[in-house]
Design a protein that fits this description.
This protein is of the alpha/beta class and about 300 residues long. The protein contains eleven helices and 13 strands. It is globular. The protein binds nicotinamide-adenine-dinucleotide.
Length: about 300
């Protein structure tokens, strides 16, 4: 049975991925700074610091597949924390690529969707579009991607770059810096204002977390022509459209419009043609995803409502 390790396994994507992998024919190892209090039976938890060389080596050395989900910055804080990201995240990921390439492991690196491409007139954006990162979070991801391309020149089973668009669903925490749908539903349930920056015309390619983890697992077995994939739906939805969907669940919800932020790209839709050409898969429709997430969050209200 293959051994799979998720670096950053307690995070939004890592945790859901671990739960999904438990149902596959693999042994699952979840690596993070702490062991979660809500441990899941069947997952092997490893407590450790990604930035400690020996700890990282020990954690990955006997594994077959590595999902790299650690990132210490996000689009919201990357202007404050970029030196840390280049000094730590970048260098340590280069070391990880070295280990992976020298020991013939498969790795999937979680990159970013919109922030690496920047402002684009032609949408949906394809993987071979030029990249023009709009902040240091996107720039960090591109630095790492370029290193991965170089390693891939020398290895048979390529390291895969997954450019994930805008995931939403169970386990997300918008207070960490991203997640319009998460924020909107939680605030609607708690009776708080839903804050919209600008007029609500910002368009994103929202993808349900269960689709993300299934596609990531598929990519861990891919060894074809490409090393970079958008993990997206290829469909854009505006914030206004999201709010209209939520209105059916929360007729009394309150919306507060604030000044638009210059950090927000107006529109980002990522083509998923490359991925769908390799994997025949039906995505969860956004209305169904929102319905599932609303039901989930209503049950968990005590955990986030204050
Ligand atoms: N969530 C999104 O909207 C989104 C979109 C596109 C790409 N991504 C990328 O996907 C990856 C995972 O995202 P996420 O939303 O699950 O992030 P997250 O912040 O929820 O999870 C990251 C995990 O890494 C762990 N971690 C941080 N520093 C560590 C260290 N030194 N040692 C061990 N573990 C450490 C954290 O404890 C956390 O559990 C990231 O690389 C992120 O950039 C996320």
């Amino acid at each position: 049975m293959k051994k799979v390790i998720i670096l950053g396994g307690n995070g939004f994507i890592g945790k859901r991925l671990a739960s999904y992998l438990l149902k596959q024919d693999v042994s699952v190892y979840s690596f993070d700074l702490t062991i979660p209090s809500d441990k899941e039976n069947g997952i092997n938890y490893i407590e450790g610091n990604f930035f400690d060389d020996d700890t990282l080596m020990n954690a990955v050395e006997d594994k077959d597949i590595v999902f790299h989900c650690v990132c210490t910055i996000n689009p919201g804080n990357s202007w404050e924390k970029y030196m840390q990201a280049y000094n730590l995240d970048f260098i340590q990921t280069v070391k990880l690529c070295k280990i992976v390439s020298e020991t013939n492991k498969k790795m999937v690196f979680l990159s970013s969707g919109g922030t690496v491409y920047g402002k684009k007139d032609i949408q949906p954006i394809e993987e071979n579009s030029t990249t023009y990162p709009i902040n240091h979070y996107g720039a960090l991801k591109i630095c790492i991607e370029n290193v991965i391309h170089s390693f891939n020149e020398r290895i048979n089973d390529k390291i895969i770059i997954a450019r994930i668009s805008n995931p939403y669903g169970p386990g997300q925490d918008y207070t960490k810096g991203v997640g319009f749908i998460d924020a909107a539903i939680k605030n609607a349930i708690s009776g708080k204002d839903i804050v919209v920056f600008g007029d609500g015309s910002v368009i994103r390619d929202y993808i349900y977390i269960d689709d993300v983890v299934k596609l990531l697992y598929f990519l861990s077995s891919y060894n074809g022509e490409y090393d970079t994939f958008n993990v997206s739906t290829g469909i854009g939805t505006s914030q206004i459209e999201i709010l209209q969907m939520l209105q059916t669940h929360f007729p009394d919800m309150k919306i507060k419009y604030e000044k638009e932020r210059d950090v927000d790209l107006k529109k980002t839709i990522l083509s998923n043609k490359r991925l769908m050409d390799c994997y025949d898969y039906k995505m969860i429709d956004i209305k169904d995803g929102i319905f599932k997430y609303v039901e989930y969050l209503k049950e968990k209200k005590d955990e986030y409502a204050t």
